[in-house]
Model the fold of this input.
Amino acid sequence: MTDKVQLYFSSTSKKTWSRILIFSLFFHFFLVLAVFLLNKITFSESEHLMIPVFEMVQVAPNPPPPQKQKSVQKPEPKPLPEPEPPKPIKKELPPEPKIVEEPTPVESPPEPEAPVEEDFAMDDLDLASVELPSLEAVGAVNIDPLMQIYLERLKQIIMQNFNPPSHFDISRSAKTTVAFTVNKMGQIYAISLKHSSKNKTWDHLSMRAVQVSKLPALPETYKNNALSLQFNFTPN
Done:
């Protein structure tokens, strides 16, 4: 009897301990699994919550702060130096002029006037034989007032171009006559030596005076196309 009881209790205790052990193993396994799952869920949520999300936003750089203008202090103007008082000027009186007695001039007797030498004696001069330079029309020409003024103007122009050297040695009775023709426009042509003075230089200067002269047009009262003239060059 006693052996049966002991065997019963021993078998029962073995089953009980085995059940307790199995239950304990399952309990701890589920406990560890529950803890693991709880930690997993917590960590995943915390990790999910702690992931930062960044947005790339391009921000314009801040403008540099305005530079403060340095206030330039103007230098204070230096005070002008006080003008020195003018020095007193000593006025010196001019020296008294010395009176110099001038010698009385001695009047010299007047010198006799020298007689004026004339190139030729008045008694020997034949006024009728002296011929002055002249301008004449050739042929029958109506010398009205306009034509007379025109011929005087031509004479002045030609004489202005006649420039013989000073103290030219030529006889007073010498005469060179140059014939020429003037058209309506005042142009000179057909120049010829009608009378020679027997002096080539005088004749050349006479011809040249006519050639270089610029004459005005013929008067409107003159109806012909040309006017024939002759100029007498004399040394008087």
